[in-house]
Design goal:
The chain is an all-alpha fold and 203 residues long. The chain is built from 10 helices and no strands. The chain has one domain: Tetratricopeptide repeat domain (Serine Threonine Protein Phosphatase 5, Tetratricopeptide repeat), CATH 1.25.40.10.
């Protein structure tokens, strides 16, 4: 059921995907319980669909609930918990709620470093998204060194011609100076990255 819903979502068939996600979540709650990992994955999947439809307030409630319950059921440094934290931070960033997103990014980054080590690809993804957040906030002096660290890391790990490396090169360059708004481009980039991160939570 989730797989078919994911297919519909990837095709932009949101009206067909939503009842499948709702049914999957309802059945998981009934059969497995409200805090079972599969239930929380279904909850996150529904949240991602609502986000894709622009229903941010509804998506935010689901992401917050999934994060709270994953912390309780799985622990604060479990990969599922960290994915929920990242998903919520990205959604808040896309909504323009930068002050709420920033501490989530910082916590996720700190816990990811502790759980996975400094060189794990998740660390680079988090740092990249945090740099985009700083760019959105106009904190260019904080964004620039993070972009450089990410670019250096991607060159070493995936290689200089890898899509992630090229993407980080693309986002490092146009950090605007004071007085220039980055909001439009920031939201565009954040939206594409959100979809990428959420897809990793649907397995």
């Amino acid at each position: 059921m989730n797989n078919l819903a994911l297919l519909f979502q990837s095709q932009g068939k949101y009206a067909e995907a939503e009842p499948l996600y709702q049914e999957a979540l309802s059945k998981c709650k009934k059969v497995l319980g409200k805090e079972h990992p599969d239930t929380l994955t279904s909850m996150s999947n529904l949240g991602s669909l609502l986000q894709d439809q622009g229903k941010y307030a509804e998506a935010e409630l689901l992401f917050k609930e999934a994060l709270l319950k994953r912390k309780k059921a799985l622990g604060e440094e479990h990969p599922g918990t960290l994915t929920s934290m990242h998903n919520l931070a990205l959604l808040l960033q896309y909504e323009g709620k930068y002050a709420e997103a920033e501490p989530l990014y910082k916590e996720a980054l700190s816990r990811c470093k502790k759980a996975f080590g400094e060189q794990h690809p998740h660390i680079l993804t988090l740092m990249h998204n945090m740099a985009l957040l700083f760019q959105c906030e106009g904190k260019y002096a904080e964004a620039e060194p993070l972009f450089k660290i990410v670019l250096s890391g991607y060159k070493k790990t995936p290689g200089e011609d890898h899509p992630d490396t090229l993407a980080s090169m693309n986002t490092e360059q146009p950090v605007p100076g004071p007085g220039k708004s980055a909001d439009t481009e920031c939201h565009k980039i954040t939206h594409s990255i959100t979809s990428e991160i959420l897809s990793a939570d649907s397995g």
